């Protein structure tokens, strides 16, 4: 029953003169199908909601417009149940009572038995309807409740267990229509309205005078999804005062939503005070500082999802900022590439951030404008989740869960020690200053690490070169997993060089190749960390014996 094209009627011009057809100004949900911006012969006849996208068009044939299904019709078709108020239901004459029996339906005083093949199956379906906790009518093009008072009474009596309703891909126009449906489902707690084009409440006379009914119908809703519905935050703020107990709000892929200001209704009343989960994935959120400032009134907010947004950089907070109480943050497919943004994230959230889901968007979509620094590529996330995980743990001290995997105390210690060694190595190689790396001094104090700088050796001026075993031209390839301890690498070097087990081997990183084939700068690698902290695939090392 799903139709290929959905539109919103923005204008209806009645027949003029001898014409008998209406002229409709429509807006396609899919803007690519449109023709213009509602302009005819230089005059703006209507204004599409999707401004600047050319989503408008004119239509002369009313037969091409279909209103959609009522909720009662869609429910009847989906579950095979006859609902009062539907044309399919045969009602007894006035004063008669229909009695359902084994052979059919007996009409009260007449005693006439009407054959009803499959009546037992219908009764079973009615019973099943009363047990349903979730109903999905997505794609049925629901446009309103439909029926009459008898329809409403039937729905209230039979939808007693229903807590979740999905009417995505609907043709609902007014919030009062949404409220009519919800009012017939007393136990409803979650409603899904994805791919809607519901009008802003204050713009349409259809909703005027119905505020009390809308508030009463929506007051018990705990979760609402209204994704890809072309909503701005001001649109959300208009309906928010009616969602008194809303705990979760999913606003995924609403293109006009770029800011959360203001966080109050049109009358200045604080809203969404019970909100715990806010999903802004796929919206146009790009300003982290403005976002954090807007979230301050949401004292109960626990989870924020800003995945797949153009949020490229997290700046440090202002000196007098209040720490944001945000235990759970989701940043999947993120264009954030610089570790300074993660440092700033810690400054914004302090010890409150305990759970993080984080991944980078594909490189082709990661144009990054954060300031560069002397450390070059070392200051950027690698995109390798295993490698970045340890640094994320070291930089965010309160993390207990990272990408749905618990952060155990042993992993935290290894990550923090590895972070210290990584910074020492970079500083020793002349790639930045230790002051550039957040938590470096703090972690050294926590773990009691000697503050002496890493040893840097110029091979050309030292005796190490004279003690090298072999040359790079004769080097042996060793395979070892990144997660392996350095002790395992030492054993493999012993075997490769056929050394005595008691003979000591020093392992050095190398850089700045000399003409002779020996690299010029070296930093000794200590034990206690994994191979992956120091070496990548194809790296060369010096073994000192």
Automatic annotation (TrEMBL):
Residues covered by the CAP-Gly domain: 14-60
Keywords in alphabetical order: Leucine-rich repeat, Repeat
Region (Disordered): 359-384
GO cellular component, one term: cytoplasm
Keyword Repeat in annotation: yes
Protein name (database record): CAP-Gly domain-containing protein
Organism, scientific name: Dioszegia hungarica
The organism's taxonomic lineage, starting at the top: Eukaryota, Fungi, Dikarya, Basidiomycota, Agaricomycotina
